[in-house]
Amino acid sequence: MKSTKTIIRKFGFALFIAGLLVAFGCSAKKSSLIEMTGDNFNDLIMNELLVAAFIPANCDNCNDVLAALEEIQNEMQDVVIVMMDVKKNEQFLNQIQFHIKDGSPTVVMFSDGDIQDYFIGVESKDTIIEKINKTKATLHVWEDVEAGIVSFMDVFDFTLKDLNGNILTLSEVGGLIILDFWATWCPPCKVEIPYLVEFYNNYKNRGLTVIGVSAEDTETLINFKNDLAATGTDMNYILLTDSEREVSKMFGIKSIPTTFFISPEGKMLKKEIGFTEEFVPEFQKLINDNLPK
Question: What is the pLDDT of residues 83-101, one digit of tens each?
């Protein structure tokens, strides 16, 4: 099981890109759903599929969402559905940088400690079920990939353009690949970049390729790269633009950075969400273990 420290750190990153606004409190009616608190948060999110409704202050429509979720819980026994009173758990939510929009419910889907999807506001019961089933399908694909039942490249191969307009297809790259989904505005991404540069410079002659994928436009990426170079960091690995977010959606990217290690045989070695310097030794070991000596 992931440690409390790891999960708290990870969710500080994961919901950074969700754009949720800060506000706390609760005004919803008593719910029959399991109550999530700071004490059981880390255990609950490790379920295979958890749907958590975060209920803030002055939320006139939260009861509608809770009623729909209660019905869904009775019908879908393989999904754990919970609710959290935001005001009661304000200190804990602040600790993990989990910020909820005032006046509207925020519903987040977790699996094995990671965010899979979320929505803010009221959705119908049928729409929520559709979102849950979509998340289930995505999880099954990842399970098959991780188990080696299906090839990572068969499922997730893609073609995008780099900053010079050259076309790159992932399956044609070869060697060990670090595939990093990132953005110029993302603080943990900026922390990770110098390490990716270092890995690339140290191991490119042994077959390592580093690829960064951003949903931002080419001009924004070029300007960021130039500004970074002026500070002494040459972002000299491959940068691809996914401005239509087709690849990000295919991979189910909900938070950044999300970093994949892909073996020379095309198998996924690791998927990591978020980044701190504590990840570096494990990244280093993955590289050393999967490149020719």
Answer: 999 999 999 998 887 878 8
Domains 4-146 and 152-289 share a fold: yes
**Residue 235 amino acid letter:** M
Q: Which residues of 264-285 are buried (b: 16+ CB within 10 A; e: fewer)?
A: eebebbebbbbbeeebeeebee
CATH number for the domain running over 4-146? 3.40.30.10
Residue spans of the domains in the chain: they are 4-146, 152-289
Q: In the numeric block, which tokens belong to residue 63?
A: 């009861």
- State the DSSP code for 113: T
Match 């399956």 to its residue by tokens: 171
CA-nearest of 225, 233, 194 to 210 is 194
DSSP secondary structure letter of residue 134: H
- Per the CB < 8 A criterion, the answer to whether 63 and 95 are in contact is no
| DSSP for residue 240 | E
CA 122 to chain centre: 23
To the question of domain 152-289 being in CATH 3.10.450.50, the answer is no
Q: pTM value? A: 0.65
What is the C-alpha separation between 41 and 226, in angstroms, rounded? Answer: 42
**pLDDT tens column, 227-280:** 999 999 999 999 999 998 899 988 888 789 999 999 998 889 999 999 999 999
- Put the strands of the sheet holding 114-120 in their side by side order: 34-35, 80-85, 50-55, 106-111, 114-120
For every residue of 70-102, DSSP letters joined together read: HHHHHH-TTSEEEEEETTTTHHHHHHTT----T
**Token match 């999110």: residue?**
45
Q: In angstroms, rounded to a whole number, what is the distance separating the alpha carbons of residues 200 and 177?
A: 10
- Residue with tokens 């990591």, as numbered in its chain: 272
